């Protein structure tokens, strides 16, 4: 006679509606800390808490241990990123290590969830939080790191409690050692150089959007890079129009956070429950990120700037992908035996 655990495991799988409801329950848990921080007037930590929760939630669809581990890694990375912000070379080194290290997990096919960490750190290193009542510098760095880790672990616990073994699982796509090493090297060099440029060449408040684009669209294969770049450009353009429309309504911060939360849930549901195309995910995610802490007065400039950074990042990624393809073809041609050889 089978045990209750065995019987439960062999029971019917959750429907799409059930998965959406379960994801909604975890997402409500994810938004509790940011809402409390907003109510307490600590707006500077709101976005960091959201980022930490999203990192943990995405990883939970692969493995709960990965979710907890990435929460800790994200906190440490955020701490170091805030400290490195005033120093372009240090910031470039931090992003090279974080992005390159995340790319190395492609060997086990885990780069998709792990790359969410450098996405969050891209924003943190270029625009560190200003926390009410906390002096800028080491104190802010410590608080930022602790907040991101704490919110991530909170979501990991919520996912374990609510979803358990019923949570949707994403398959992994392992890559060969050679492809992984080349991918990590390209990611580290390109993202590190872009970080140095953003931090050194002028005060670009939203330069992190360029880094975000590069981290997302650079992929282990040329075809994946081009496909993801085109989908991201289209989704970003649509999302920016939506963000502009909402922001021009001049809503209070609480409503901005509420709308951002709904859009973020829609993005996650489209990606992890409905398995819709990537551009749909980006269309919902883009305004969700913008509306976390955007004021209407600066929205038009912000939308224009982010669209420009997305286009620049996509162009860089495609150029790198084609260059890598040419190098691989040329190396293969040189290594091929001559048809005249005996």
Characterization of this structure:
This protein is mainly α and 342 residues long. It has one domain (14-335). The chain is 74% helix and 0% strand. The protein is built from 14 helices and no strands. It has helices at 4-9, 16-39, 46-60, 64-84, 88-104, 111-114, 116-126, 138-162, 177-200, 208-217, 222-247, 253-272, 278-291, 299-335. The chain is globular and about 50 Å long.
List the helices and strands and how they pair.
Layout: H1 4-9, H2 16-39, H3 46-60, H4 64-84, H5 88-104, H6 111-114, H7 116-126, H8 138-162, H9 177-200, H10 208-217, H11 222-247, H12 253-272, H13 278-291, H14 299-335
Poorly predicted segments: 1-12, 335-342
Note the main sheet.
none
How many individual domains?
Answer: 1
Structural class: mainly alpha
**What general outline do the C-alpha atoms trace?**
globular
State the helicity in percent bands: over 70%
What is the average of the pLDDT values?
81
Radius of gyration: 21 Å
Distance between the termini: 69 Å
Number of strands: 0
How many separate helices? 14
What percent strand?
A: under 5%
Oligomer: single chain
- H and E string: HHHHHHHHHHHHHH
């Amino acid at each position: 006679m089978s045990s209750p655990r065995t019987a439960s495991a062999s029971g019917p799988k959750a429907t799409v509606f059930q998965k959406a409801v379960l994801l909604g329950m975890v997402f409500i848990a994810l938004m509790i800390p940011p809402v409390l921080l907003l109510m307490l007037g600590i707006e500077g930590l709101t976005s960091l808490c959201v980022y930490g929760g999203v990192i943990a939630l995405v990883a939970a669809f692969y493995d709960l241990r990965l979710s907890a581990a990435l929460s800790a890694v994200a906190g440490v990375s955020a701490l170091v990123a805030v400290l490195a912000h005033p120093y372009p070379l240090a910031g470039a080194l931090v992003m090279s290590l974080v992005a390159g290290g995340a790319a190395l997990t492609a060997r086990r096919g885990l780069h998709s969830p792990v790359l969410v960490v450098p996405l969050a750190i891209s924003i943190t290193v270029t625009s560190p939080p200003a926390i009410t009542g906390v002096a800028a510098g080491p104190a802010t760095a410590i608080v930022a790191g602790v907040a991101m880790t704490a919110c991530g672990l909170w979501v990991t616990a919520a996912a374990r409690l609510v979803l358990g073994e019923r949570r949707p699982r994403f398959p992994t796509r392992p890559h060969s050692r050679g492809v992984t090493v080349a991918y990590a090297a390209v990611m580290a060099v390109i993202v590190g150089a872009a970080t140095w440029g953003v931090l050194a060449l002028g005060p670009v408040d939203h330069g992190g959007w360029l880094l975000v684009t590069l981290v997302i669209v650079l992929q282990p294969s040329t075809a994946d890079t081009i496909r993801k770049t085109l989908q991201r450009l289209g989704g970003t353009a649509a999302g920016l129009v939506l963000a502009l429309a909402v922001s021009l309504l001049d809503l209070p911060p609480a409503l901005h956070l509420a709308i951002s939360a709904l859009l973020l849930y829609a993005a996650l549901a489209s990606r992890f429950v409905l398995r819709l195309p990537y551009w749909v995910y980006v269309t919902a995610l883009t305004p969700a990120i913008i509306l976390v802490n955007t004021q209407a007065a600066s929205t038009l400039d912000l939308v224009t700037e982010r669209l420009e950074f997305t286009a620049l990042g996509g162009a860089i990624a495609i150029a790198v992908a084609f260059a890598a393809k040419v190098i691989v073809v040329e190396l293969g041609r040189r290594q091929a035996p001559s048809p005249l050889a005996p």
